[in-house]
Amino acid sequence: MEKTWRWFGRKDRITLEMLRQIGVEGIVTALHDVPNGEIWTREKIRELREYIESYGMRWSVVESLPVCESIKYGGADRDMLIENYKESLRNLSAEGIHTICYNFMPVLDWARTDLEHPNPNGTTNLYFSYSEFAYFDIYIVGRKGAREEWAAFKVPGLSVERDILAEVEALKARMTPEAEHKLVENIIVKTQGFVSGNIREDDEHPVELFRNLLALYDGITKEQLRENMRYFLSAIMPVCEECGMNMCVHPDDPPFPVLGLPRIVTSAEDIDWFLKAVDNPHNGLTFCAGSLSAGAQNNVVDMARRFASRTHFVHLRSCHIFENGDFTEASHLGGRADLIELVRIFEKENPALPMRVDHGMTMLDDSSKGYNAGYSFLGRMFAMGQVQGIMATVDRELGIPYRITGFYE
Ligand code: DNO
After folding, report:
1. Do the bridges between strand 124-128 and strand 2-6 make them parallel or antiparallel, or are there none, so unpaired?
2. Would you call 375 a catalytic residue per the annotation?
3. Closest ligand 1 atom, residue 373 Cα
4. pTM above 0.70?
5. Pocket residues for ligand 1 (CB within 6 Å)?
6. Which of 112, 380, 392, 409 could form a disulfide with 360 if both were Cys (CB 3.0 to 4.6 A apart)?
7. What tens digit of pLDDT does each residue of 240-281 get?
8. Rounded distance from Cα 374 to ligand 1 centre (Å)
């Protein structure tokens, strides 16, 4: 696979010069300063592409070309927004970029409750706790019907009994305003802005904004959301065919419904649905092993075998699910995702497939640097080293040449 790295543009503290030294071949990025829904112009795309190329790398993948909420819930202006999307696709293709990662998650791009959960070795990782999430839902957002839903809650994919409401009350007894503020920051602020999500770090009333966003989806069922995804994909496929664009949807993270919102890219059944609903090779998947492995229902290796031929982009990361269903991000050599087997599957399928190491632990100096949540430098570099080792070993096994970049050979 092509070794790529998610880079957040010129403002990223992690520079292209640093990435050149650690074996990165391709860059995954976006025009983060263009508001969602606006057309990405050729000039802006070219300027960033040339900057990346001046460091000896290429712009391999766009992550993300965001799909506006209105396209997701089927608002009055969706056709206009889809036209803009098509224009951006044409412009990207004219500049030689042909792989587009996007998501179809309503409101919240991804969710964690703790961004600095300690590992036994003193590093930290991202963490998802059901009871903290339920507390946020019931007591901070105050969503109608939340309490009833949590009363009937079953941990997805596991047969463990859990009285979430009792856990939420226990949390409430020891909650402080600071801890409450932190929960808001973790769930809807710090994880969102930098990925072109709906809420930015400087929004003054994030919870209010969030409630308004949730309201847009009143009455939108899973079936309706699926229809809206089918509508969007059918509309853009002719442009994708005409200019050789590969669309690859990112799975929902975490892969289960949250806050009463439907989620439609969570499991093998879901993936099978959207691939068949618009059965075109340009309609494909970002195989995010981390997001998929956070769902106990998912056998990630089986899914990779099944969907490899429609996978256009790979995210390598792995999750550990605790007995009560909470999950955290595991070592890239451990957890549920079996990255060694995944590398074998994808290297056999297509050695040119772009792959990036996803989320790394925060280790050593990382914590003082203020990196985006999940996107540390040393932790990700450590994972990148592990993945390069896996790739070199698997490639030798398979008789595929492994590319070492930056050294005399
Ligand atoms: C989080 C990322 C997501 C992803 C988008 C793709 O770390 O994996 O924000 O980039 O969902 O559209």
Report:
1. unpaired
2. yes
3. 7
4. yes
5. 63-64, 101-103, 109-110, 195, 250, 374
6. 380
7. 999 999 999 999 999 999 999 999 999 999 999 999 999 999
8. 11
